[in-house]
Amino acid sequence: MLRQTSLGTLGLSVGGILTVVGFWAYFITDNATLNLVGFFYGIPLLLGGLALKASELKPVPLMQPTAESVLALREQQATATQNQIRQDVTRYRYGQRAHLDSSLERLGLSPTDEECPVLVGVQEVETAGAYTLVLEFESPLMPLELWQEKQDKIASFFGPGVKASVSPAGDRRVDVALIAAP
Asked: I need a labelling partner for 150 at 20 to 30 A (CA). Which of 7, 88, 117, 157 fits?
């Protein structure tokens, strides 16, 4: 629940309300207690909310609902790395340019900020009886051939216990399937 809540929006809302109450107390009612609440709590929360909102990275959506059979496979076969990736990309993040940007940089798939592929979707599926986490990237400046060359490196980077499969997913999009290999 908290993973799906934007701390920036929460800070802006609470800080905005407290700041308005503080100004109202100062100018209208001359209530010193409410005035202090607005100035000492409201304004810092408002500024903190603005800072978080400016550096916010929204969660990546699930491309399709996960089937019950795949959830059962996840419980049995998913590696710690697959679970960590799924949890990280489906929650709000702060202070990052893009989801998995440092991983892509280490893999040699993001030489510059402009060429960095963007994670646009995640799905959990079954591949030949194995749990699979599919990451869909929009990659307009990285050719599919480069992704396919890095397939073994991707598997070892996200391994052990993971096989990687790279396939086209449409115009300028690439699917990276991380397949549990029990």
From this structure: 88
Environment class of 128 (CB within 10 Å of its CB; exposed 0-12, middle 13-18, buried 19+): exposed
Residues 147, 166: contact at Cβ < 8 Å? yes
CA 94 from chain centre, in angstroms, equals: 9
The whole-model pTM stands at 0.78
Contact 18, 37 (CB under 8 A): yes
Q: What is the pLDDT of residues 73-102, one digit of tens each?
A: 888 888 888 888 888 888 888 888 888 888
Query: Tokens at residue 80, please?
Result: 């710690």
Q: Is the dihedral of CA 97, 100, 103, 107 positive or negative?
A: negative
Please, where in the chain does CATH 3.30.980 lie?
A: 68-180
